[in-house]
Structures are given as structure tokens and as C-alpha cells.
């Protein structure tokens, strides 16, 4: 961290002595005030629920400028990565900091494809789930269970273990997600086919059956690859912070990533793509485009708790750059499949237009986020709504593991242990049962 000449001074109105706090400069983005010694010097904590103003770590991986609507992985704009690289190049970049040259690209693709199969015993583990279990419930279990199958990569303090766990997780996630899908469908699992691309292999494992192979459609494979790139990392969001916090205890990488999967499931985070599509289907069932006005009224009503899913973001107070790219892919996929007149897509476009012009959304800087379009694309590809978040988890795994490994390698890393403002009862004695 680069120290700044500027110091922050914290003073108190009760006459307590003021203190100077060091300031550090990032390479871009806001400076941070170092409050690590605050408690020792003042006996006070800071209070910041939801981490609205708190940097929990230093990182070199992903940078977001929410006001500009900019997203950079290792300095490269998401627009360039989405159009000039594939997902495995993006994985390499996130893990190792640079884009691969031709040889490294070849080696990395080979390395990942050598790890796509999962232990055969995994399918018996899967059998313990109900067939109608939510894929995210299944995936949380499967990812956590990897630590029971790959004992030789569970020591987070060993860099070799970290490396191999990273590759295993990236390689096996598509297999696990496809297995979770096939299990729910009651279809046999399809083994990976390593000569296919990462996205192509995933789609084959999803859609092929023993009686019929899957013929990859280039437009759809490219769309899937783009979904993976756009979701690969997003700085210190809830699931990434969960992975870091979980991993900070020294637990194994599979357990830490399983915690990330569990966190991602929530509708305010990764579950938003599923929630956005359910919302569109709901409006469609209840009158379609005609009923948008009524729906928007409910969204704006503070007493209704209805939200326009797929809109708004904690960091982006401008158009989510991923949403722009996903919108483009959405048009391409629907065009390739002849679905431009799909009623749900038309409904989404009308909703987007109305929301972008409405004073409520404009004043609060609520723009469509990536999930608004990714659900439509995935539905068009033939992916069931309940699997959307699992696909997000598949893509985000590389981000989680890159962030986890960065944390473990950081000399300033400590077990995460937030403090609290206690507002409960002071000490009291347990009364006898008859007096309670
Ligand atoms: N629909 C209606 N009103 C909204 C929405 C929305 N989607 N999002 C925010 N608002 C309102 C909110 O009610 C508040 O209004 P007021 O100031 O009058 O109280 C104002 O906008 C600020 O919202 P906030 O809740 O303080 O914002 P936040 O940063 O805490 O929440 C969010 C961000 C993503 C949780 C929220 O916008 C949301 O719930 N959106 C819908 C769910 C969604 O699409 N999530 C996916 C995020 S992108 C994928 C990812 O990276 O995980």
C-alpha cells in the first residue's frame, strides 16, 4: 500500500484527544483511512453495517468505477475481454495477473481439461438428494463435498495445494452443475468431452443424452462463454467477502468456495437472475405489457416490498457495463433462434424503457444490471430458471478462488473478526424458573 502525505485527523466533541490516522492511496479509486489502531488508541470501534464505506482488504484483481459504469479485470476493460478473449483466458488473467500468450493459453486449456471429471463416487453422494431439490442446495453440498474427495489439495497454506485446488474447482464446476441438472431431470450424467471448449463442453454435458449428442450452436456457445466472462469476478461483493471471511480461518478452499455458493444463492445477489425471470413470467401471466404500469406502481410503493429485480446495484450508479454486453448478446441469441418476438423479451424491453424514464428510478440511479438480461439469454438457450444461479456460481468460482488465494498470500492477512455495537441487556442474573 502506498502511504499518503495526507493524514486524517479524528477529533471528538467531548474533549478526548484527537488522533491522526494514516491514509493510503490505491492505484485508482478512493483512498482509504487506516483505522487498524483506532480501538487501541481510542477504545472505540467504527460502525458500518453493510460495509458502505469500509475496504476490507487490498486487492489487485478487479476494479469497479460505479459512477462511470466501468469494470476492469487486472486493468483490462470488461468490454475488451468479452469481445477479444474467452473465459479460460479470463480465468488465467484473474488467477495469475496477466493474459496468457499462445503457449501458456494452450497449456492452461490442457491443464483445466485434464481435471474436468469428478470422482465417480460423487454421483452416489448426489443420489442422497431429493430429485426436486433446488440446484443451488445441491451445488452447495457438492462443492463442499469436494474436500472429502481431494485430500491432496486441502491445505490452504501450501501454495501447490492452492494451485491445484483452483484448477480443480474451475474444471469441475461445469461438470457438477450439469450433474445437478441431469439429476433433477432424471437423466443419466454426460461425461465431459475435453476436446470441446469450456462453454461447449458444459452445454454438451447439459443437453446431450446417451441417445442423442448435442450439436453445439456457435452463437449459443459464445453467449454462454460471455455469461461466464461477465460473471467471473466482481470485487468484494457479498459472496466474495464470504469466501474471504470463511477462508480466513484457514479452512480448505473447497469449504470456502461452498460458503460463496451459499451466499450467492440469495435474491439480492446471484439469485437475482432467477428472481428477475420469475418476475417477468409473473407479469406476463397477469396481463403482460398492459400491466407494467400497475407493477411499477407497486415497486414504487414503500409499503409493498416489491422490487424491480435485475435493477439497481450497490456499486453501479450508472449503467452496469456487463448489462450493456449482455443486452447485445441477448439480441444476438434471440435473433439466432428466431425469438425476437418472444413475448417475455418484449415485456422485458418495455419494462426497461419505462423504468429508465421513470423519475423514481432516475433519481435513485437505478439501471438494469447484468441479471436483467442474463436470465432471458439463459432461458432462450434452454436452461431452466432454477439453474441460473448455479451457472453464475460456476462462472464466479474463478473470482472467488483468485480472491481467496490473494488473501492467503497477503502478508497483512488476518482471520476476519468484525466487532459490534452491543445494545442488548447488560449483565443480569438468571431468575429461578418460578419467577420468569
Ligand atoms: N427496485 C425498486 N427500488 C429499488 C431497487 C429495485 N430493484 N433497488 C434499489 N431500490 C431503491 C431502494 O428502495 C432505495 O429507495 P429509498 O432511497 O427511497 O429508500 C434506493 O433505491 C437505494 O437502494 P438501496 O437498497 O439502498 O441500495 P443497495 O445498494 O442497498 O441495494 C441492491 C442494491 C442490488 C440489493 C438493490 O438494488 C436490489 O435489491 N436490486 C434488485 C435485486 C438485484 O437485481 N440484484 C442483483 C445485483 S447485480 C448481481 C450481483 O452483482 O450480485
Automatic annotation (TrEMBL):
CDD domains: EcCS_like. The keyword Transcription does not apply. It comes from the Bacteria. Pathway: Carbohydrate metabolism; tricarboxylic acid cycle; isocitrate from oxaloacetate: step 1/2. InterPro entries: Citrate_synth-like_lrg_a-sub (IPR016142), Citrate_synth-like_sm_a-sub (IPR016143), Citrate_synthase (IPR002020), Citrate_synthase_AS (IPR019810), Citrate_synthase_bac-typ (IPR024176), Citrate_synthase_sf (IPR036969), Citrate_synthase_typ-I (IPR010953). Keywords: Acyltransferase, Transferase, Tricarboxylic acid cycle. It catalyses: oxaloacetate + acetyl-CoA + H2O = citrate + CoA + H(+). Belongs to the citrate synthase family. NCBIfam families: cit_synth_I, PRK05614.1. This is Citrate synthase. It comes from Rubrivivax benzoatilyticus. The lineage of its organism: Bacteria, Pseudomonadati, Pseudomonadota, Betaproteobacteria, Burkholderiales. The gene is gltA.
Amino acid at each position: 500500500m502506498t502511504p499518503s502525505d495526507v493524514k486524517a485527523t479524528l477529533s471528538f466533541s467531548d474533549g478526548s484527544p484527537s488522533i491522526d490516522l494514516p491514509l493510503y492511496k490505491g492505484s485508482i479509486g478512493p483512498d482509504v483511512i487506516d483505522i487498524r489502531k483506532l480501538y487501541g488508541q481510542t477504545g472505540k470501534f467504527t460502525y458500518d453495517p453493510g460495509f458502505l464505506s469500509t475496504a476490507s482488504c487490498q486487492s489487485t484483481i478487479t476494479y469497479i468505477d460505479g459512477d462511470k459504469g466501468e469494470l476492469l479485470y487486472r486493468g483490462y476493460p470488461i468490454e475488451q475481454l468479452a469481445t477479444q478473449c474467452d473465459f479460460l483466458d479470463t480465468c488465467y488473467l484473474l488467477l495469475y495477473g496477466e493474459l496468457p500468450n499462445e503457449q501458456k493459453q494452450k497449456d492452461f486449456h490442457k491443464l483445466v481439461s485434464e481435471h474436468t471429471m469428478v470422482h465417480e463416487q460423487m454421483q452416489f453422494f448426489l443420489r442422497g438428494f431429493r430429485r426436486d431439490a433446488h440446484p443451488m442446495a445441491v451445488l452447495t453440498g457438492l462443492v463442499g463435498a469436494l474436500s472429502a474427495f481431494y485430500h491432496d489439495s486441502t491445505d490452504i497454506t501450501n501454495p501447490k495445494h492452492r494451485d491445484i485446488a483452483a484448477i480443480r474447482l474451475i474444471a469441475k464446476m461445469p461438470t457438477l452443475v450439469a450433474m445437478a441438472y441431469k439429476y433433477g431431470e432424471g437423466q443419466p450424467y454426460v461425461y465431459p468431452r475435453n476436446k470441446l471448449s469450456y462453454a461447449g463442453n458444459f452445454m454438451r454435458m447439459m443437453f446431450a443424452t446417451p441417445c442423442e449428442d448435442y450439436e453445439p450452436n456457435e452463437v449459443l456457445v459464445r453467449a454462454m462463454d460471455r455469461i461466464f466472462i461477465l460473471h467471473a469476478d466482481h470485487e468484494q461483493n457479498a459472496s466474495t467477502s464470504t469466501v474471504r471471511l470463511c477462508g480466513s480461518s484457514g479452512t480448505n478452499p473447497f469449504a470456502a468456495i461452498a460458503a460463496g455458493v451459499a451466499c450467492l444463492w440469495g435474491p439480492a445477489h446471484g439469485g437475482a437472475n432467477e428472481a428477475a425471470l420469475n418476475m417477468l413470467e409473473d407479469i406476463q401471466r397477469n396481463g403482460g405489457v398492459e400491466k407494467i404500469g400497475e407493477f411499477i406502481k407497486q415497486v414504487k410503493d414503500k409499503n409493498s416490498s416489491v422490487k424491480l429485480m435485475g435493477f439497481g446495484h450497490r456499486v453501479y450508479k450508472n449503467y452496469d457495463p456487463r448489462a450493456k454486453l449482455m443486452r447485445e448478446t441477448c439480441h444476438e441469441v434471440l435473433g439466432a433462434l428466431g425469438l425476437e418476438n418472444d413475448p417475455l423479451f418484449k415485456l422485458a424491453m418495455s419494462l426497461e424503457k419505462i423504468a429508465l424514464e421513470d423519475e423514481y428510478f432516475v433519481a435513485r440511479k437505478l439501471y438494469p444490471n447484468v441479471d436483467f438480461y442474463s436470465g432471458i439469454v439463459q432461458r432462450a438457450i434452454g436452461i431452466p430458471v432454477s439453474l441460473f444461479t448455479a451457472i453464475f456460481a460456476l462462472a464466479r468460482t474463478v473470482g472467488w478462488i483468485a480472491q481467496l488465494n490473494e488473501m492467503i498470500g497477503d502478508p497483512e492477512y488476518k482471520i476476519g473478526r468484525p466487532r459490534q455495537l452491543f445494545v442488548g441487556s447488560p449483565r443480569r442474573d438468571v431468575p429461578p424458573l418460578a419467577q420468569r
